[in-house]
Amino acid sequence: MLIGVPAETVPGETRVAVTSETAKKLTAQGHTVRVQSGAGVTAAITDAAYQAAGAEITDAAGAFACELVLKVRAPSEAELPLVKPGTIVVGMLNPFDAEGLQRLAAAGVTGFALEAAPRTTRAQSMDVLSSQANIAGYKAVMIAADKYQRFFPMLMTAAGTVKAARVVILGVGVAGLQAIATAKRLGAVIEASDVRPSVKEQVESLGAKFIDVPYETQEEKEAAEGVGGYARPMPPSWLERQKVEVAKRVALADVVITTALIPGRPAPVLVTEDMVKAMKPGSVIVDLAAPQGGNCPLTEPGRTVIKHGVTLVGETNLPALVAADASSLYARNVLDFLKLVLPKEGGFKIDLEDDIVAACLMTRDGQVTRK
Ligand code: NAD
To answer: Which atom of ligand 1 is nearest to the CA of 233?
Structure first.
């Protein structure tokens, strides 16, 4: 199969869908890999490294003129004219972007969105949401530590004692867990909140404290269980009680990292303007939900701003700030997904009996097929 790897063109997107490691594996399987010149540069992969892995270097048109195109982000409107009808595109195509999918379908693309893979054990090795959220959680803490003008660990020095930073993490999925682990390594004291009760044990096993907000009605319990491991919107009664508990912690916090998301919906507001006003000057909020509107209404997506004396970081693509590792994990996810669609005997197979393939298939034969 002829496989193309274009350079990403979304501003700030530094990742690449194929690394020299995965290019080598694909060429060893008998595929021809064409990488756009410079595609890996921001992820620390030179054209020479791709060539050493057996790939050919081409231009953007050459990378798109392939049977299978591997991308990080969906082809933009400017890129689509380079994509021939019938091309298969695998990437993070954003399953909730109805207009984007419509454009892909209209261009005749057979599109697979890896974010749509089920959260099952079999799909774990190709779970791009997890591999990238893990990086986002780590980088959020690194940025917070950089913006915060004090130490994270408790220090006893000849000049006196410095208190450990108090970190509050709101939303404990993959990103939140990594944020807890990273902040813990830096010596912070951590409290965390999530709607899902199963998270409590994970939070405590990482040495953080869980902010308990008991479920008082059957409706609250059922909502908290979520669907397929994901959160569902919680009833207002529970959210009100959560807000009271969270407000107390946020007022005492030095750093707040918010990661709360509900798939396909705007992010829930967890840190209100009043809560920000009550925070200590010099505190930092890193809002990982910024691309979905933010968990704090004061967050400005894509910007770092200071409001009421608090630094708010609205970075919208944290994995891209750790481009080399983010690419290397993403490229392995892609490679694992390809095992399901590239049979050893050659060609491209779309087996709709396979739950992962069926879930990821977004567009085919000019239609949006997203389930
Ligand atoms: P996510 O990014 O969709 O959401 C982040 C977190 O925000 C979630 O934990 C969610 O419960 C929480 N949240 C939503 N509303 C909230 C609110 N009002 N207050 C506080 N927290 C709120 O989550 P994710 O990281 O994609 O993980 C989703 C689920 O998938 C988790 O249960 C995770 O363990 C599971 N998972 C399973 C696998 C697997 O089995 N292969 C792999 C990865 C993740």
So the answer is: 15
Query: Is the separation of the CB atoms in 3 and 68 below 8 Å?
Result: yes
What is the residue with the minimal CA distance to atom 35 of ligand 1? 229
Query: In angstroms, what CA-CA distances link 356 with 352, 366, 367, 370?
Result: 9, 21, 19, 12
Is 173 a pocket residue for ligand 1 (Cβ < 6 Å)?
Answer: yes
Q: Is 223 in the pocket of ligand 1 (CB under 6 A)?
A: no
* 68-73, strands of its sheet edge to edge: 56-58, 32-36, 2-5, 68-73, 88-92, 110-113, 361-364, 367-368
Residue 276 CA to ligand 1 center (angstroms) comes to 24
Task: Judge whether 127 counts as a catalytic residue.
Answer: yes
- Residue 287 catalytic? no
Q: How do the pLDDT tens digits run along the chain, 371 residues long?
A: 999 999 999 999 999 999 999 999 999 999 999 999 999 999 999 999 999 999 999 999 999 999 999 999 999 999 999 999 999 999 999 999 999 999 999 999 999 999 999 999 999 999 999 999 999 999 999 999 999 999 999 999 999 999 999 999 999 999 999 999 999 999 999 999 999 888 999 999 999 999 999 888 888 888 887 777 777 888 999 999 999 999 999 999 999 999 998 888 899 999 999 999 999 999 999 999 999 999 999 999 999 999 999 999 999 999 999 999 999 999 999 999 999 999 998 999 999 999 999 999 999 999 999 87
The atom number, within ligand 1, closest to the CA of 130 reads 43
Alpha-carbon distance of 65 to 67, in angstroms, equals 7
Catalytic residue check, 130:
yes
pTM reported for the whole predicted model: 0.95
